[in-house]
Amino acid sequence: MARKGLAREGETIGVMVRMYCAAHHGDHDRALCAECDELLRYALQRLERCPFGDGKGPCSKCEVHCYKPDMRAQVQAVMRYAGPRMLTRHPVMGLRHVVKSLKGGKQPARE
Fold it and tell me: What are the tens digits of pLDDT across the range 56-67?
Protein backbone atom coordinates (compact mmCIF):
# COMPACT_ATOMS: atom_id res chain seq x y z
CA MET A 1 0.00 0.00 0.00
CA ALA A 2 1.93 2.97 -1.26
CA ARG A 3 -0.75 5.60 -0.58
CA LYS A 4 -0.47 7.21 2.85
CA GLY A 5 -4.16 7.18 3.83
CA LEU A 6 -4.71 3.59 2.80
CA ALA A 7 -1.50 2.53 4.52
CA ARG A 8 -2.76 4.14 7.73
CA GLU A 9 -6.09 2.35 7.36
CA GLY A 10 -4.25 -0.91 6.82
CA GLU A 11 -2.28 -0.33 10.00
CA THR A 12 -5.49 0.44 11.90
CA ILE A 13 -7.30 -2.69 10.74
CA GLY A 14 -4.19 -4.71 11.60
CA VAL A 15 -4.18 -3.39 15.17
CA MET A 16 -7.91 -4.04 15.50
CA VAL A 17 -7.67 -7.61 14.23
CA ARG A 18 -4.74 -8.31 16.58
CA MET A 19 -6.73 -6.94 19.55
CA TYR A 20 -9.73 -9.06 18.61
CA CYS A 21 -7.66 -12.21 18.04
CA ALA A 22 -5.81 -11.88 21.35
CA ALA A 23 -9.09 -11.45 23.24
CA HIS A 24 -11.16 -14.10 21.46
CA HIS A 25 -8.64 -16.72 20.44
CA GLY A 26 -6.31 -16.52 23.43
CA ASP A 27 -3.13 -15.70 21.54
CA HIS A 28 -1.40 -12.91 23.40
CA ASP A 29 2.00 -13.02 21.69
CA ARG A 30 0.77 -10.93 18.71
CA ALA A 31 0.68 -13.89 16.32
CA LEU A 32 -2.67 -14.21 14.59
CA CYS A 33 -4.63 -17.44 14.38
CA ALA A 34 -5.29 -18.75 10.87
CA GLU A 35 -8.82 -17.31 10.73
CA CYS A 36 -7.76 -13.82 11.81
CA ASP A 37 -4.73 -13.89 9.53
CA GLU A 38 -6.99 -14.73 6.59
CA LEU A 39 -9.37 -11.92 7.56
CA LEU A 40 -6.55 -9.38 7.81
CA ARG A 41 -5.08 -10.41 4.46
CA TYR A 42 -8.52 -10.13 2.87
CA ALA A 43 -9.16 -6.68 4.39
CA LEU A 44 -5.77 -5.40 3.23
CA GLN A 45 -6.43 -6.74 -0.26
CA ARG A 46 -9.80 -4.94 -0.35
CA LEU A 47 -8.13 -1.70 0.79
CA GLU A 48 -5.52 -1.94 -1.95
CA ARG A 49 -8.25 -2.33 -4.57
CA CYS A 50 -10.54 0.41 -3.25
CA PRO A 51 -11.59 2.57 -6.21
CA PHE A 52 -11.77 5.69 -4.01
CA GLY A 53 -8.12 5.58 -2.96
CA ASP A 54 -6.87 7.87 -0.20
CA GLY A 55 -10.06 9.93 -0.22
CA LYS A 56 -12.26 6.97 0.67
CA GLY A 57 -14.76 7.24 3.44
CA PRO A 58 -15.48 4.56 6.00
CA CYS A 59 -16.39 1.21 4.47
CA SER A 60 -19.50 1.04 6.67
CA LYS A 61 -20.94 4.09 4.87
CA CYS A 62 -19.95 3.05 1.36
CA GLU A 63 -22.58 1.91 -1.11
CA VAL A 64 -20.10 -0.35 -2.91
CA HIS A 65 -19.66 -3.23 -0.46
CA CYS A 66 -16.68 -5.04 -1.88
CA TYR A 67 -16.42 -7.51 1.02
CA LYS A 68 -17.99 -10.95 0.76
CA PRO A 69 -20.93 -11.16 3.21
CA ASP A 70 -19.17 -13.59 5.58
CA MET A 71 -15.98 -11.51 5.65
CA ARG A 72 -18.00 -8.33 6.15
CA ALA A 73 -19.69 -9.91 9.18
CA GLN A 74 -16.29 -10.88 10.60
CA VAL A 75 -14.89 -7.36 10.12
CA GLN A 76 -18.00 -5.92 11.78
CA ALA A 77 -17.44 -8.19 14.79
CA VAL A 78 -13.81 -7.05 14.97
CA MET A 79 -14.84 -3.38 14.75
CA ARG A 80 -17.53 -3.79 17.43
CA TYR A 81 -14.98 -5.30 19.79
CA ALA A 82 -11.85 -3.28 19.02
CA GLY A 83 -13.38 0.09 18.13
CA PRO A 84 -14.23 1.21 21.67
CA ARG A 85 -10.91 -0.13 23.01
CA MET A 86 -8.83 1.76 20.43
CA LEU A 87 -9.25 5.04 22.31
CA THR A 88 -7.53 3.65 25.42
CA ARG A 89 -4.96 1.34 23.84
CA HIS A 90 -4.04 3.37 20.76
CA PRO A 91 -5.48 6.85 21.38
CA VAL A 92 -4.08 8.68 18.32
CA MET A 93 -5.02 5.90 15.93
CA GLY A 94 -8.41 5.56 17.62
CA LEU A 95 -9.16 9.27 17.33
CA ARG A 96 -8.18 9.32 13.67
CA HIS A 97 -10.52 6.41 13.06
CA VAL A 98 -13.42 8.08 14.88
CA VAL A 99 -12.92 11.41 13.10
CA LYS A 100 -12.74 9.72 9.70
CA SER A 101 -15.89 7.74 10.47
CA LEU A 102 -17.76 10.90 11.45
CA LYS A 103 -16.39 13.00 8.62
CA GLY A 104 -17.03 10.50 5.87
CA GLY A 105 -15.31 10.81 2.54
CA LYS A 106 -15.77 10.16 -1.14
CA GLN A 107 -18.67 7.95 -2.06
CA PRO A 108 -19.64 6.48 -5.40
CA ALA A 109 -21.73 8.54 -7.77
CA ARG A 110 -25.29 7.29 -8.13
CA GLU A 111 -26.25 6.19 -11.60
Answer: 777 777 777 788
